[in-house]
Design a protein that fits this description.
The chain is an alpha/beta fold. The chain folds into two domains: 157 residues, no CATH class; 177 residues. Helices cover 54% and strands 13% of the residues. The protein contains eleven helices and eight strands. Strand 4 and strand 5 form a beta hairpin. Helix 6 runs antiparallel to helix 7 and helix 9 runs antiparallel to helix 10. The longest helix has 33 residues. The two termini are 26 Å apart.
């Protein structure tokens, strides 16, 4: 996979995380922007970024734009930019994005003045670089010499463990901690003589992070912090990001099997929960046939959801088959249904 293709795959996986249910996104927004949002009344609206197409600008589009609708006033906008590498032009890009996002929602006031409200913005860096600052700052000077400081906060995700992110209510993005290993593997593999001990230690770090991710998602789902769909999305993104590392760097069958087993152990819990739902529905009907049908349909539906999520982010068929226990024919049927 080329560097550009790898970056594109990471971008798509990061965006996929924000297909999670509203409550998970509200937890993320509330913490990353340090604001209160009432989960009971708020609704997350995904805003298309396709309107960023002014001919004077490049075709770079903002990653994630969200609106929070809570029926208490104007819906605030949130722009989340997820960046793999350091970009010296990131400050200008954020000014451009902020202006165009705000302009797309601009309104005229009673004095016939156009009001442009800049969205809340944050840049999340996934890979370490010595030039990454705590904030991006641009001073805009007008002809009358008045000026405005345009400031965007920066979040160094690479500096945190999965446990630390989960404790901060940023559990939605814990799979993205795996991206930092891309650069670390590159450094080791580019050396003339590969240090196998250092390489193996890095592989173990990856596996330990994945173990943390699976433990957190399983525990959070059991405790009601996240729902099953959120867990499925997080695990699906984790598989995809590991697969990218495995195909380019790790290429070790035992490591791959260990990851598959960790994911499989959690997806089996998903199936077991659907199994129990099926039992309860069957008992409620009071008919033995209903119980058996509930079991079968519940398990099948749980596995199907996991498989569909993995397909959405381009996970290899062999990984999906291992994680779900589906047969190739069953997976082909799910693919056709998803078309």
């Amino acid at each position: 996979m080329s560097k550009d293709n790898s970056r594109a795959a990471i971008d798509e996986t990061a965006k996929f995380l924000f297909d999670a249910p509203d409550h998970a996104i509200i937890d993320f927004i509330s913490r990353i922007f340090s604001i209160h949002i009432d989960k009971a009344t708020a609704e997350i609206i995904r805003v298309s970024s396709e309107y960023i197409s002014h001919p004077g600008f490049s075709r770079h589009l903002p990653d994630i734009v969200l609106s929070v609708h809570d029926k208490t006033g104007p819906d605030p906008l949130f722009h989340i930019e997820i960046q793999t590498e350091h970009d010296g032009m990131m400050d200008l890009r954020m000014v451009k994005y902020g202006y165009l996002i705000g302009a797309s929602r601009s309104q005229m006031d009673e004095d016939d003045t156009r009001i442009i409200s800049i969205p809340h913005q944050v840049v999340i860096y996934l890979e370490e670089h010595k030039r990454i600052r705590d904030e991006l700052k641009v001073k805009i000077i007008f002809p009358d010499e008045s000026d405005v400081d345009y400031i965007v906060p920066v979040f160094r995700l690479y500096a945190y463990s999965a446990y630390e992110l989960s404790e901060m209510d940023l559990y939605l993005v814990i799979p993205l901690i795996l991206v930092k290993y891309r650069k670390r593997f590159d450094i080791i593999c580019r050396r003339k003589n590969l240090n196998q001990e250092e390489f193996d230690a890095l592989v173990q770090d990856v596996l330990q992070d994945i173990e943390q991710i699976t433990t957190i998602t399983g525990t959070y789902e059991e405790n009601g912090v996240m729902d099953e769909k959120t867990k499925d999305i997080i695990l699906s993104a984790t598989i995809e990001l590991y697969t990218q590392l495995h195909q380019k760097y790790i290429r070790d069958r035992k490591s791959k099997e260990r990851v598959e087993n960790m994911i499989e152990s959690v997806t089996q819990k998903i199936s077991k929960k659907w199994h129990m739902i099926g039992i309860e529905e069957g008992i409620q009907k009071g008919i033995e046939k209903g119980i058996e049908k509930g079991k079968e349909e519940g398990i099948a539906e749980g596995v199907k959801i996991v498989a569909k999520n993995l397909l959405m982010i381009g996970t290899a068929d062999e990984v999906i088959l291992k994680a779900t226990g589906l047969t190739p024919d069953e997976l082909d049927t799910i693919k056709r249904e998803a078309l």
